[in-house]
Amino acid sequence: MEKLLIGGGWQVSDNPGGSFRAEDPATGQPIGPEFPVSGAADVEFALTHAEAAAKDLAAIEPERIAGFLDAFASGIEASAPELAEVAHRETALGVHPRLYDVELPRTVNQLRQAAAAARSRLWSAPTIDTQAGLRARYAPLSKPVVVFGPNNFPFAFNAVSGGDCAAALAAGNPVIAKCHPAHPQTCRQLAKIAQAAVQSAGLPMATIQILYHMPPELGLKLVSDSRVGAVGFTGSRAGGLALKRAADEVGIPVYAEMSSINPVFILSGALAERGAEIASELATSCLAGVGQFCTNPGFVVIPRGGAGDTFVSVARRCFEQAEPGVLLARGVLEGLVRSVDALRTAGARVLCGGHAASGAGYRYSPTLLSVDADHFAEHAAALQQEAFGPVSLFIRTGSDAETESIARALEGNLTGCVYSARDGSDDVLAERLMKQLRPRVGRLLNDRMPTGVAVSAAMNHGGPYPATSHSGFTSVGFPAAIRRFATLECYDHVREAWLPPELRDRNPDGGLQRCIDGVWTTADVAASTP
Question: How many separate domains does the chain show?
Fold first, then answer.
């Protein structure tokens, strides 16, 4: 059985609760070695060492943490061909272009952006009020962060190498990575690279630890342990809420990305102008990655009438001509069957697909469903069901008023989009819709599908509940993503020698932006004080 990276080294699992193997989603057959299902002893061992590492890591200068993140990125880059092949076997995602050409470069870029943010210390937002004698900054939690990785991004959101892990480490916190059991070999390979980077940077050896799998009740116990500082989670609503309930009992914050239908409103002028083009964009977006993106456009509002009917026909033809792709895992297929059945029970009519596809492995036919706006109004909650896969629900409206009423009935989402005519004929309705969508989505788009998520300081990959557990933070983009895993420290008339470097009179490196008496500046305090 494979070893765990806990306590600073590769350890045999202590009294595991069983074992498991990855599966090849294309065949449904087990592949690779056996991995342990950790029990309470492994979790306790990891927590004990993470707690000790947290105190040391919080005192380490940002340059060494940045050096580790850069070395980790370079290690992944050097091992890219091998990593892509391993992840392909466990996820059925294509080596080219998806894994090697897109996701691995994104992961490397993400780690390097985290390194730059750690080095610059901008995330700490040092704030000084010379009149009141107060100084404040964001600082490490001095506790470990537990990160739960999803199944759909084996690199960019992996518990070991993804954005949550990078953000927690950039803030100076150790990470206990709860890997997704769908790709344990990928996690193991990433952990080996991470551990080599930890050693080369001289960080505490338990800076990163990994647990491959554990019983659900043990996961709840882990996130509610008082030694944990925060939790990052990407996955299902049921899983995220269960973790949040457990952690809430002891006041541990959980930053969970859970579910989103990502509504797209296509207005009449846009339909008349370029309906077929938009239908093709929708199909490309919805079917990319076999629909297994958290920003998949799963809810599309279209006016009734000839132009809307033509749009539906073009989209349906695209879906019917698409080959059923391989889903990530058995659980994804089972969940998709349940979700589509729930939509049908709520009154949605299947236009195409609607069933598991024949053949080996885990596949589902590309699926479109439709329902009228008046029926949606009666069953709004049931019809806002995320179907994680190549599925989209069309809502047909008969008036602008019905279209606006749908926007008002929406739950919180990661994204929302309005397609409007280029000649301005949709502008009045588009503006009203965007005002309705703005408090209901994290990222608002105009005339483009939502599946791409750029790693940018201006990105918000978050949103109101139930898209996430906290609408004030993003899981993508630095420095904002880092502040989820930080604590706000305030110093009231504390002597200069006892202040952290970011808050002393002298700017620590001459280039750190600090807010001094309401002005962002790189100057020293004495030079800024009247």
Answer: 2
Q: Do 197 and 315 share a domain, yes or no? A: no
Range of the domain at 282: 263-446
Q: Which residue has the tokens 């599908």?
A: 449
> Which amino acid is residue 264, in one-letter code?
V
Angle, helices 400-409/427-437, rounded to nearest 10 degrees:
10
Q: Is 257 a catalytic residue?
A: yes
Q: pTM for the whole thing? A: 0.96
pLDDT of residue 89: 97
Strand stretches in 112-222, DSSP E: 127-129, 134-140, 145-148, 175-178, 208-211
Q: What pLDDT is recorded for position 527?
A: 56
Pairing state between β 9-11 and 4-6? antiparallel
Give the C-alpha separation, 358 to 323, whole Å: 11
d(CA 33, CA 486): 37
- Which CATH number characterizes residue 180's domain? 3.40.605.10
Regarding whether 341 and 270 lie in a shared domain, the answer is: yes
Token pair in block for residue 168:
């927690």
End-to-end CA distance of the chain: 67
Does a structural domain hold residue 522? Answer: no
CA torsion sign for 63, 65, 70, 71 is positive
d(CA 348, CA 354): 11
Question: Which listed residue (51, 90, 257, 502) is catalytic?
Answer: 257
Residue 211 lies in a domain: yes
Amino acid 359: pLDDT? 86
Cα 192 → chain centroid: 23
Strand order in the sheet with 519-521: 486-492, 134-140, 127-129, 514-516, 519-521
Question: Which residues have a Cβ under 8 Å from the Cβ of 406 and sit 6 or more positions away?
Answer: 263, 301, 373, 376, 377, 395, 397
Predicted local distance difference test score (pLDDT) of residue 526:
82
Cα(338)–Cα(343) distance, integer angstroms? 9
Cα–Cα distance between 381 and 263 in angstroms, integer? 14
Q: What one-character-per-residue DSSP string does 84-119 give?
A: HHHHHHHH---IIIIIIIIIHHHHHHHHHHHHHHHH
How high is the pLDDT of residue 530? 42
Q: Which residues contact 370 (CB under 8 A, 6 or more apart)?
A: 312, 348, 349, 351, 393, 394, 395, 396
Give me the catalytic one of 187, 286, 294, 318: 294
Q: How far apart are alpha carbons 76 and 383 in whole angstroms?
A: 41
pLDDT digits (tens, 9 = 90+) for 273-321: 999 999 999 999 999 999 999 999 999 999 999 999 999 999 999 999 9
Half-sphere exposure of 450 (CA within 13 A, CB side): 31
Active site residue 352: no
Ranges under pLDDT 70 in the chain: 527-530
424, part of any domain? yes
